[in-house]
Amino acid sequence: MEDYRDRIQGLLQGKESMLIRGEWAKSRSGQCLSTDNPATEEKLCEVSLASEEDVELAVDAAARAFPGWRQVDPFERAQRVSALANALRQHAEDFALLDAIDSGNPLTAMKGDVLMTAGIMDYFAALAGELKGQILPGKPGMLHTVFQEPYGVVVRIIPFNHPIFFAACKIAAPLVAGNTVILKPAEQTPLSALEMGKYVKEFFPPGVVNIVTGDGPITGSALVRHPKTRRIALTGGVDTGRAVLKLAAEGGIKNVTLELGGKNPMIVFPDADMEKAVESAVVGMNFHWCQGQSCGSTSRLFLHKKIHDEFLDRLIQRTGRIRIGLPLDSRTEMGCLVSKDQYDKTFRYIELGKKEGAKLVAGGSRPEGEIFSKGYFVKPTIFDRVEMSMRIAREEIFGPVLSVLVWEDYEEVVEKANSVDYGLTASVWSRDLRLAYQTAERLEAGYLWINGSSRHFLGVPFGGFKQSGIGREESVEELLSYTQVKAVNTAL
Ligand code: NAD
Predict the structure, then answer these.
(1) Based on the structure, what is the number of domains in the chain?
(2) For the chain, what is the HEC assignment?
(3) Is 186 in the pocket of ligand 1 (CB under 6 A)?
(4) Residue 259 alpha carbon, nearest atom of ligand 1
(5) Considering only CA atoms, which residue is closest to atom 17 of ligand 1?
(6) pLDDT < 70 stretches in the chain
């Protein structure tokens, strides 16, 4: 394994400061948060915990920068977003290193995240021409014109599981649309967003992008509640989503979109291509890449009775081949969970699953070996004979725990798949495409795969039904969601 120590030490320099109005500044209150390496349980460094006063400064900076930024030619705004994307590509290894030590995700996977992020930013840059208006028919002598205008100050609050991915690609659409942005990374993984600040400073006028670090209760709440933040977008848990809706209402009438959690079903029919479906069940659970800490994970696997035994055998074997290791080792496919909280929560659910009567058929423990003597490592875990009455089947664990349920009756499996409060993703496996489509039509989810899982496709709107959220991203809908419609009726 390569020795990255010196390079990491260099990258950690200056991370106690936030980017506000184009300047690096520590929190006015002097309060800090510690960020740790979850693979070693060692402290990496401290970052600022932004207080209400810091939030006030960031909002003021973003509000002052807005009139100038909205006047910039949209194609120039797009070029600047692409310039930032290129900087990410050029420094991909730095970003990946920071994410790997901060989140516990494998370095190789994080390099993939950086490149994917840059691609998404370019996609939004290329959509600048979609910020077009309309001329509508009307009475003679009248001209009805419709414009898409930016909101002003946008707040983007993001989670820990894909740090640079969320930090960078989630500011692209609001910026191209002419808004100014305040980005708040997750408290567990603030480093790569701060690193991005170096390049933000180079490509954007002061105040157009502000990066504030902090927690939810103080920093996040103050941003959402502030009367001058006009548009809020959260990617996070359902409870946070509910809190954000309330807090936003305290500050005024705001446009809020929410990308929240999931407890997503994968339904496998007896005629499915078993080899591919087994692979898809593993990839869909996101065991590798982020250790099951993904909103889109297909964590409820409904196997038809006829294929259950063989499928499960193959699944256990395939899962057993996943290489768990230290995040910085380039051979590692599965790293560790982001924090002690996530680790403890995962083991609480593993114990609960056993108590509830599910059958533990894989994992359920830490991996063995000297290198795992520290760190929040959990083996890929599979429970069989899970029932929908069990909490492990109903609640989002956000860890590497897969629940397998057996089915025989079609109506029953559709009803069970829909019987949770979430509705983010779903997967259907069958060679009979008509049946698969009919099933997809009946599933209450916003993003579905037929004979697939996990992959996102640029331009295809991503988002949830029910408690999984409001709004759609990764598509033209996301860009337009950062605009409001203005209609001008002119008597000629
Ligand atoms: P979280 O909800 O705890 O935190 C997300 C962000 O919200 C963090 O930056 C946090 O500081 C902030 N926050 C917390 N409380 C807040 C408050 N009261 N006001 C304002 N901001 C607040 O989520 P997490 O643990 O970081 O991430 C896991 C969750 O995110 C899971 O539920 C997962 O499914 C979800 N998620 C959803 C998507 C999606 O696209 N739908 C993607 C990734 C993760």
Answers:
(1) 2
(2) CCCCHHHHHHHHCCCCCEEECCEEECCCCCCEEEEEECCCCEEEEEEECCCHHHHHHHHHHHHHHHHHHHHCCHHHHHHHHHHHHHHHHHCHHHHHHHHHHHHCCCHHHHHHHHHHHHHHHHHHHHHHHHCCCEEECCCCCEEEEEEEEECCEEEEECCCCCHHHHHHHHHHHHHHCCCEEEEECCCCCCHHHHHHHHHHHHHCCCCCEEECCCCHHHHHHHHHHCCCEEEEEEECCHHHHHHHHHHHHHHCCCEEEEECCCCCEEEECCCCCHHHHHHHHHHHCCHHHHCCCCCCCCCEEEEEHHHHHHHHHHHHHHHHCCCECCCCCCCCCECCCCCHHHHHHHHHHHHHHHHHCCEEEECCCCCCCHHHCCCCCCCCEEEECCCCCCHHHHCCCCCCEEEEEEECCHHHHHHHHCCCCEECEEEEECCCHHHHHHHHHHCCCCEEEECCCCCCCCCCCECCEECCEECCECCHHHHHHCEEEEEEEEEC
(3) yes
(4) 41
(5) 216
(6) none
